[in-house]
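A quick word before the example. In earlier lectures we treated sequence and structure as two separate objects. From today on, think of them as two lines of the same record. Here is TIGR04053 family radical SAM/SPASM domain-containing protein written that way.
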Amino acid sequence: MAPHPPQSRPSTGPDPAAIDTSRRPFVLIWEVTQACELACDHCRADAQPARHPDELTTSEGKRLLDQTREFGPGQLVVLSGGDPLARPDLVELIEYGTSRGLRMTLTPSGTSSLTPETVHRLSDAGVTRLAVSLDGATPSTHDTFRGENGSFEETVRAARAARDAGLPIQINTTVCAQTVDELPALRDLVDELDAVLWSVFFLVPVGRGRILESISPDRAESVMEWLSDVSKDAPFGVKTTEAPFYRRVAIQHRRDASGSPSSDGIGRRLGITAGDGFAFVSHTGELYPSGFLPKSAGSVRDGGLVERYRESELFQSLRDRDALRGKCGVCEYRHVCGGSRSRAYAHTDDPLASDPLCAYVPEGYDGKMPSDQASGD
Ligand code: SF4
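And the structure line, produced from the sequence above:
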């Protein structure tokens, strides 16, 4: 069979600073399947070897992509899993989304399926960025964390194949007690692989991630300061996931450096948090504020994605920074940060509680601390 001609991919999306996150997400993540060959210690999805019988079908998936398009031109879509490569219709879905003007990106697992040939097929289908996970800078540290020998080599090989195909790559890293010492070596590896973005995810204890150990708030603070320094000189971008207080740390850091009490140095755009810039559709079509906040705003299998994102009580409450509780609720940084709503929910069952990983205490605050709010704030 003749190969498909390469899809023409939308080159740019809307200006991120101009996105009104009450109207559309910065990124819509679709968990196309929970199936995966790996058994990573930290897996949010609690991935399984086989596909779930009730996961969205090809035609339901295409309807979801049609709904996603209603957010506006150039909507960014991340196909995640599990391992998206476990779906035989993956290329068809990428081509469909690309033909509808969506910016399709992918987070495959580092398995033997991720061959250079597969990377080229994905690129031809219109993928605009490939995100791969590296949680250790050596085969030993990464493979131990991922529970699969050979995963490091397969991931690095795929990243190099993507680079050689001209496909931008993003490296995702999970930060927890088991991986935090690897960060300096990982920074060098991200550089060596010519990645365009390093996405550093601060562990939220959901799924199998519950068995991992988080770092302390003080350690998180020093990691953030280090990342802020890395971002000044690195040839790649640095972003954090489920740690919006990186914005607070960066503001404080740059303010200290400039000596100006009013300079925030990173612009005024609101922080992106669960339900406020992020939306997540599960493998069975449930709409969640994020993959780490498994509270459903309802099924979008038959429609309603845009309405639920904009109007559901759950999503609207997450966007109201003045409704936050505890120290996040009075923090002067709540509009640029807002804390991880997912981590608050994982620790307290209350998505509006304080983020327990943030060490900052607003001046004059004398209410409950996150360590006191284990069962509601
Ligand atoms: S207290 Fe909450 S809003 Fe303030 S910086 Fe920390 S996480 Fe962000």
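Notice the following. Residues 51 and 294 are 19 Å apart (CA to CA). We will return to this example when we discuss secondary structure assignment.
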